[in-house]
């Protein structure tokens, strides 16, 4: 056949192709390597057949007939064949471009796989913790993947990322809790800002390890979320304590009740307390030796009343002080128990972290310094002075004093207002001296 014409292309019929999956190509005899491919469905596509610099036969598509006219395809073919004559391989260019078009979801999948294998280092140049990785996976699956997963990383702009942040803050990726286990996916400014921090970190790892060329999240302005300063007043603690006593009589979950009381008496983070193992408690020392926490391995001092609460928990054949109802894990239902108690006590906006804030607030009301409170809470050291906080008598007395005070408020035994007097305390009928400062 001579030069391809519109009439010859229109005349090509699927019946000439045969069974599904087969095809035929009519070549243009004037422009060598240019032709039109017809498949059994009738679809016609303009193609170019060529050999690259290594002599390998290659074929690329340049357009679909109907979307592109024959003359447009011929002009494009001349341009491409001219570039091929100069040593360019258009198929290799196309494959390279596809590599540059790696999607956000693909980068996230790569990050999760590498982090799980311990090949990505996080804070303090240590492998990323399993708990951190679990939170990253949650943010990826709930927020990042639905909003940006299909987007090419190289095509993302700051406006795209900040737009996703706004959508998360507005609750567009929120989901109710599915089934009887697990939590609901929420939005809000705090969730949005933390998700953007996660995305930024993932891209930074990708750039550093050569997965992507640049981090499109650099320079993104993260939302300034309002700090959650909710803490219970003395009156609210008393209401909660009364609700706990009533709930205990009505058959509320004993492990949940004990855990809530323990958190108020120690200020531990939720997972620090729920996953607390019996082997970590040092009874005589009045401390818990965590092999790992948010701030690394730590020894945390707790009050004698809190130690007694732990020792009073049934063994139940579990390594945890607060075991799950079934299986070998630890108790996880504290949020639901706390919600029921707060509904009974008519308290609003109370979370397990509120209990930690409340512990710190009571410690502050008793006159303990920020340095002492930070040591009791296990905050990461921010200066040279805090490195000298260790288990001494002053810290033990502080932990005892706060735990005793909290127990008294919960049990309705504390005075309505008990101001702290420097150097003296009244604890369960015993006068003891408590140093105000380190």
Automatic annotation (TrEMBL):
Belongs to the 'phage' integrase family. Residues 227-401 form the Tyr recombinase domain. Residues 427-438 have a biased composition (Polar residues). It comes from the Bacteria. It comes from Xanthobacter flavus. Keywords: DNA integration, DNA recombination, DNA-binding. Residues 416-438 are annotated as: Disordered. PANTHER family: PROPHAGE INTEGRASE (PTHR30629), PROPHAGE INTEGRASE INTS-RELATED (PTHR30629:SF2). This is Integrase. Transmembrane segments: none annotated. The keyword DNA-binding applies.
């Amino acid at each position: 056949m001579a030069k391809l014409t519109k009439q010859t292309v229109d005349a090509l019929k699927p019946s000439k192709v045969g069974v599904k999956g087969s095809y035929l190509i009519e070549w243009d005899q004037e422009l060598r390597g240019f032709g039109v491919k017809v498949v059994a469905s009738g679809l016609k596509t303009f193609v170019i057949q060529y050999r690259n610099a290594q002599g390998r036969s290659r074929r690329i598509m340049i357009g679909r007939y109907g979307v592109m006219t024959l003359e447009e395809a011929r002009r494009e073919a001349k341009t491409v064949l001219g570039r091929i004559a100069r040593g360019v391989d258009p198929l290799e260019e196309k494959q390279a471009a596809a590599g540059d078009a790696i999607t956000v979801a693909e980068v996230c999948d790569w990050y999760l796989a590498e982090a799980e294998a311990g090949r990505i280092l996080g804070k303090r140049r240590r492998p990323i913790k399993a708990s951190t990785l679990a939170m990253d996976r949650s943010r990826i699956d709930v927020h990042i993947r639905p909003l940006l997963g299909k987007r090419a990383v190289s095509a993302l702009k700051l406006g795209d990322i900040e737009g996703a942040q706004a959508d998360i803050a507005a609750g567009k990726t929120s989901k109710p809790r599915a089934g009887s286990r697990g939590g609901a996916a929420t939005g809000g400014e705090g969730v949005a800002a933390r998700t953007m921090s996660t995305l930024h970190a993932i891209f930074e790892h990708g750039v550093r390890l050569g997965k992507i060329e640049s981090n499109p999240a650099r320079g993104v302005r993260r939302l300034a979320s309002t700090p959650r300063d909710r803490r219970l007043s003395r009156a609210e603690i008393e209401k909660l304590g009364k609700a706990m006593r009533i709930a205990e009589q009505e058959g509320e979950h004993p492990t949940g009740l004990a855990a809530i009381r323990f958190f108020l008496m120690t200020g531990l983070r939720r997972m620090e307390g729920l996953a607390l193992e019996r082997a970590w408690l040092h009874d005589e020392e009045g401390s818990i030796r965590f092999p790992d926490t948010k701030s690394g391995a730590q020894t945390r001092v707790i009050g004698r009343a809190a130690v007694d609460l732990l020792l009073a928990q049934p063994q139940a054949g579990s390594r945890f002080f607060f075991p799950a109802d079934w299986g070998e894990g630890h108790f996880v239902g504290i949020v639901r128990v706390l919600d029921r108690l707060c509904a009974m006590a008519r308290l609003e906006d109370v979370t397990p972290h509120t209990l930690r804030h409340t512990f710190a607030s009571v410690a502050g009301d008793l006159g303990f310094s920020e340095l002492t409170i930070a040591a009791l809470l296990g905050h990461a050291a921010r200066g040279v002075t805090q490195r000298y906080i260790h288990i001494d008598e002053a810290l033990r007395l502080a932990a005892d004093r706060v735990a005793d005070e909290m127990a008294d408020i919960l049990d309705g035994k504390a005075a309505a207002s008990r101001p702290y007097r420097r150097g003296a305390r009244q604890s369960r009928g015993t006068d003891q001296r408590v140093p105000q400062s380190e």
